[in-house]
Amino acid sequence: MRWDLGFAAASFWALVVLSEVSSLPVTSTEKCGLRPAVEFKTKPRIVGGHDAQIGAWPWQVSLQVYRFGTGYHHVCGGSLINNDSVLTAAHCIMKWRDPHFWRVVLGLHDLYNHNTYTVKSLVRAILVHFNFKNESYDNDIALMKLQTSVIFSDRIQPICISSSPRLITLETPCFISGWGSEKEKGKAKYILQEAQVNVIPPKVCNRYDWYAGAVTWNMLCAGSEGGEVDSCQGDSGGPLMCYFPNEKKFYLIGITSYGVGCGRPKFPGVYVRISHYRNWINTRAIFSRTTTVSIQHFLIVLTVEWVTFHFVLERENLFFRCIEIILDCSLNVFIFLAKKFI
Ligand code: 4AZ
Known about the structure:
Blueprint: H1 2-21, E1 50-51, E2 60-67, E3 71-82, E4 85-88, H2 90-93, E5 102-106, E6 119-128, E7 142-146, E8 174-178, E9 193-200, H3 202-205, E10 219-223, E11 239-244, E12 249-258, E13 269-273, H4 278-285, H5 287-315, H6 318-341
């Protein structure tokens, strides 16, 4: 009987640990949003984009698709949020849903000039938001799981995702970055570009002569009223990020999603409002950690069960055998649901 109770306790604690792990935050709040390679100075407003400093946006990644004959080419941007998860836009993925098409390039400055800081990773899984709407681009968010965890360096760092809403004022310095075109129907840039942007209130962005209501509460607008600063084709999936001087850290505020053209007055870039997806991100970004932990706990439970089984055979205690079966079933259902949900 002691062993049956031991088993019950083990199963209970296995469940507790599992549920705890699934509520862990995406990134540790201490080590994110930092730029070890550059010193941050709040500069005057930038008109248009310009070359970023090396290591200025260490979470910015290039998402590339393999094409027979020409090899990998840049399709979209993305943001590293922990050592094996990259956030991007769902619409980037739609043509190539299979992870095998993709590679993620990290620590990159010049698209066509990789160096010792550059890390290339294949993709293990792609999780597209279940409610992504192709017509309105609502919920334009997806998460890529890397095949191998990356080691952070001066050029590779995760960006922070806030666990509570953050006040963004006109004073908050916010930026966009990417290898996208410099103008509508323009050529893609080889050197990572950056620009400082204003976050534009939804009321303004949805005015009848602006986006006229097309911008949902899951989106936010950023750029400038006159269109001098904007994202463009090829920047999609990349970050809209703001610097919070009190913490001296950058937070991911948006994901580049769409816009009417590029740089047109009253049609600023539209971004996914990250604060609406905190839970979605958290439950998916810990995918690998949860499954690793569940496998470990599953093995522990199996071992305990095996020992228990022998004792139960000896004693034929029906009541505790029932408890054991119930706990065992609930654990398996829990693991099954956790995997399905993720
Ligand atoms: C694009 O096609 C795209 N001006 C991204 C951003 C904007 C327009 C187009 C915003 O990837």
